[in-house]
Amino acid sequence: MAWDLTRLTRNPRDTVRLLEVGERRGITIALVRGSDMDLSTPAGRLTASVLASVARHEIEQKSDRQRRAALQAAEQGRRVGGRRPFGYEQDGQTVRESEASAIRDAYTAVLEGVPLAQVAADWNSRGLHTPQASRDGSASTWTGQTVGPVLLNPRYAGLRSHVTARVREQYKDPRKARIAGIVGQAAWDGLVSEDTWRAVVEVLTDPARSHPGRTPQALLTGVGLCGLPGDVVLKDRDGQEAARVCGHTVHRGGASPASGGRYPTYRCSGPVEHLVRKAEPVDDWIGMVVVERLSRPDARLLLQRNTGPDVAVLRREVKALRKRLDGLATLLADEVLTEAGVRRESARLKAKIAETEQLLADNGRVDVLGPLIEADDKQAAWDALDTARQRLVVDTLMIVALRSTGRGTRTFRPESVEIIWR
């Protein structure tokens, strides 16, 4: 007995088995919605087979309509329901600012090398919970494993993804499938720029990433630039061209081979290592320059706010753009982009970096520079800051480009550290 034949069989294999057993054992099917069918007779089996085929056809048509409707909604950027996305209200479009702020901070943190576990700890300390409760119904806390998929979600860049069966088959990892399934802009506002999101995707999906990244330990890692002459234009506070450089950031490297392993270095992060500089004298010089600048009588003028774009957003944008610029060599090696494609994307990113850096406003200077400017002993105040805070001060005050000192140079030359005041 069954309510309807579609409740009794779900696919052709079930129907064949039912007919075989019914014929062998003389079964009669009694349906609440439909006539009885005696499977011991040819007519009964024919009726059951035809009805099952018709039901299957209707199911397939319904499924096809649903798939087409879902694809159409995705192409139009619309959301089709589901669980409340973190950072948004139940409608999926209205931003929940308490969560959105944490998400934006997380993107910045990942680009700075902060581990996902540390991001999760920050979200938990803010009293934020995952949208999906635990099995026992209690609020669920964040872990590094649950933070990662959130940051990889295209919705936070204002992008709409639609994962088809073909995409799902091609990309076994559901995170990569969601990225590959992007069909266009979403109907809701993203929380970060697409460049920022893609830079974080490159970090979190890097095959060489066997463990979460570490917080930068060096003063100029990701902040200072390789000063080899290039096509990236650096402009001063008046918008005038100050220098043309390679544009890649520097990172803290191991000891120079020529040093006998005695000191760490700064190295260009680009595909060609243009620069290797002893790190300690550079850091000491930058510290002296910062203290001297903040000790001048006009230092308080640095705290004047303007009405420009939010400085945190712009700095996050610049870091994301530089991260993508540094990753172009990998895309070329993996044959994701051609040489011509790399040149076009490089030119676009460098132009965007220059434009965004020009837009960087002074309205974040009060929180960053205020405590140092107000301190009686500015050297002691600078020394008391941790590396992360010192990096923020440097990035707020100046653009630093490291030049090569030439072969055989053993003494530090201040002119090899080009400083452009913001």
Automatic annotation (TrEMBL):
Residues covered by the Resolvase/invertase-type recombinase catalytic domain: 1-77
GO molecular function: DNA binding; DNA strand exchange activity
Chain positions covered by the region annotation Disordered: 72-95
Ranges where the Recombinase domain occurs: 85-210
Name of the protein this chain belongs to: Site-specific recombinase DNA invertase Pin
Lineage, uppermost ranks: Bacteria, Bacillati, Actinomycetota, Actinomycetes, Micromonosporales
